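Issue 218. Parser rejects a valid record. Input:
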Amino acid sequence: MTPLFVDLINLADARFGAAVVAANDEFFAEKERLLDPRAPIWIEDRYTDRGKWMDGWETRRRRDQGHDWCVVRLGGRAALAGIDVETTHFKGNFPESCALDVLNADAHQGDWDAAPWTEVLSRRPLQGHTHNYMALDARPIATHVRLRIFPDGGVARLRLYGDAQPDWEVLARRGEVDLAAAAHGGYVVVCSDMFFGHRQHLILPGEARTMGEGWETRRRRDGGHDWSIVRLAHRGRIHRVEIDTRLFKGNAPGACSLEGASTSALDLQDPHIEWRALSGVLPLQPDALHVFEGDRLRAIDDVTHVRFNIFPDGGVARLRLIGRAS
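Output the parser choked on:
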């Protein structure tokens, strides 16, 4: 069963600025592939001068009693809820087990073995050709993680799920920031539908490369409309909205609207929550970047959540809610 924590943001994503900064060995396959957001692939007849090409990180066979490791620098400080050590396509060459350590430091120089690591996941068995999900109940704060594999082998992808924990005193000094951005701690709590594309894609960094990297709902056959609710990274006032439908050419929504609320309710569909209009109905075009500001938006202070309505359905690549933290 897929655990609930996979609904959080994958912070070990190169699009967040995460990087594999060190590994003791990468003889068969490069460490950088661990953070590729795309699903691992298999190419039957592809070989290199070192052996079978694999889409992941793979070390040579050990002939001693040691173990292998790699270090990932996250895009920023984060609270981690769980990990996925994916071994897809690694069937006879996956590690027997793994462990995870964290480091909370803005920078580290020198020997990674000498860094003040804290073990947050003791050694756990792994299975081949699958997702290996493991929860981190203590929600450790980390800027770096070290994955240790025993004794050697290959891992296709490493995903680290949790919430970004930025320094909001620093962000606030910048003035206007994207209050919805996942990199700042924003989170899409719930949506009406995400048949074709996950709701968290709305607030990821950068531009979508394919339609699959946006939020897309199925075709509606009733009189309703689709929606997503974003928990802002910080309470604030929104001054500008950017809605990106690029790549969605025959399946973009025809229009949208935004509502804001200030609430601590856990059930965001509670009818007692007061949703206030941040905008009227705004027309959308396919395959375009839309910017709405000025008299197209209504100034509301202390917004904690935004409901993004699309009419009637379709796909949106990114949603940016630019404003100032309260």
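Fixed in the parser; the record now loads. The radius of gyration is 21 Å.
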